[in-house]
């Protein structure tokens, strides 16, 4: 008997899609096919442990998994950035982060624990999850015919007929390879990562009481800590299973993969660039539980949703960059579109127009987010430009994409049409801001003072985070988007004004002309959006 939806892959993207479909349409018959036959180990070897606001809201509120997240994973103390390249200490460099928790909660997720829970939870809701199955062939039906999937479990091969096929197979990319949809990205960055047992607590690296007291309750270890330098960043992510995830993400031209492609090489690389972390790892005496690397990890996909009743979600389609942890966000966004398309199709709606619109929207979100990364790794070596970039990128993310997701407007075509021009204006403004930040970092030097740039001490920034939880009607949502546009324009003018005040040559940069032209405002050197109360 044919089923409604077969999902190829029982990892994070596939299982959350199945749960979202079950909540939206309880009668839908769903089968998830997962290659792994045994439970995932704790601290499983996957990128994607750090969540940000959209992903955390999707897991916790949209899917109703908040209790599991709070009970079995770690509350995240925000992002934290240290300009610590070459430093043997951590308390004498610029730190960007929060001194207290902000309103909207996010989590550090142990993927093994989470995915095992998702399988059990999916089965408990009536979803058929088959483990130990290998997809051998997919034949897409045409002219309304059912799709067919050949699967093998053990020595037996059988055929599954389904109205919808959704590829959530991760980097295997079953449908993308079959249909020739791979799309290269000119963002040449590599990553290596490993996990060590125990905590890597950066507060153990200092006995300077004023520095320790900057943040409440010794919580820095719960942050996604970034140790940054020219062309690279290093992540430190704690896991509830007692492991700590450590990764190096680097521009391939500045830091070739061969210099860090094994644990001994990675340690030697850290000796030079992040000696305090290297020292902590060496002194612990523990061996890493695993080690892996990915070369040129960013990629795209020309088509994710089809009116012929197939779709691609998660890393089976696109992967941007782990900086800012957007992976679970884009799972949430693509799953929301796939769920809506399937729900409409199963009640007989013609989905072609929705496929077109959702594809355009997803590509717009994807391309505007890619702009935050492409060519921007040089900024990490410039403490002042990095601090401004982080504020800009957060403001863009919380003010635009988060508002769309938290207010359940991703599929609200009527309202999206009314704010289309504002969304386009903010996208083009961001596209102008990123080259300006890059030019600034490349054209000047920056001091690296021992200070905390406390994002929680910026009232407007704290309020923007809190605003994600507002419940807005149509008029309120439209006003919110237009206010986001006004704020970004003011922030752009202030950034230019601040830089111009220290370097008069800025006014001649084409990047300056482009940015001011997009925001429609003159430079504002005396603005207040970037005025941190400083902690020495």
Q: Look at the structure and name the CATH superfamily of the largest domain.
A: FAD/NAD(P)-binding domain
Q: Taking all residues together, what is the mean pLDDT?
A: 95
Radius of gyration (Å):
23 Å
According to CATH, the fold-level topology of the largest domain is: FAD/NAD(P)-binding domain
Instruction: Give the tally of β-strands.
Output: 20
* DSSP summary: helix tally: 16
State the domain count.
3
Give short descriptive properties of this protein:
16 helices; Alpha-Beta Plaits; alpha/beta; 8-stranded mixed beta sheet; FAD/NAD(P)-binding domain; 536 residues; globular; 3 domains
Structure characterization notes:
The structure is a single chain. This protein has 536 residues and is of the alpha/beta class. It folds into three domains: 1-73 and 109-181 and 300-356, FAD/NAD(P)-binding domain; 76-106 and 188-294, Alpha-Beta Plaits (2-Layer Sandwich), CATH 3.30.70.2450; 382-536. It is built from 16 helices and 20 strands. Strands 1, 2, 7, 8, 9, 10, 18 and 19 form an eight-stranded mixed beta sheet that branches. An eight-stranded mixed beta sheet has the order 16-12-15-14-13-4-5-20, with helices on one face. The protein is globular, with a radius of gyration of 23 Å. The termini are far apart. The model has no long low-confidence stretch (mean pLDDT 95).
Q: Briefly, what is this?
A:
The chain has 536 residues and is an alpha/beta fold. The chain contains 16 helices and 20 strands. It has three domains: 203 residues, FAD/NAD(P)-binding domain; 138 residues, 2-Layer Sandwich (Alpha-Beta Plaits), CATH 3.30.70; 155 residues.
